[in-house]
Write a structure and sequence with these properties.
Blueprint (H helix, E strand, L loop, with lengths): L1 H6 L4 H8 L3 H19 L8 H6 L1 H11 L23 H4 L19 H7 L9
Amino acid sequence: MAVAAIRGDKTLAELSEQFDVHQNQIQDWRRKLLDHADQVFGRGGSSPSESELVDKQENVSRELVRFCGLEWDKNCLDFQKFGRLVYTVSYEQVKQPIYTRSLERWKNYDRHLDALKEALADIHFTSLD
């Protein structure tokens, strides 16, 4: 939810309604994640890599839940089993467990990304390698 708030695809009101959480709580979690990402993930402010999210889903999820001051619930790992309504274009993906089919698929396009990497270098772009 904090990540969704950071992305900004939805308003706080929309997120609040979707997750049944007060807007102030979403803002607080968003602020904490932005201010303390290095403490949450232990990497000087960087987010977990795609491979970490896939290979170490439970560890990364536990860190995030703990940081938000919430109690761990094993259902966090089985999110696809619950019938919560999802308002995204990736609805079908949200209803599936995390998969590895596309892990590192970006490497097929790496040679086409040099100009983009250069343009993003000034805003702390981290190599995908």
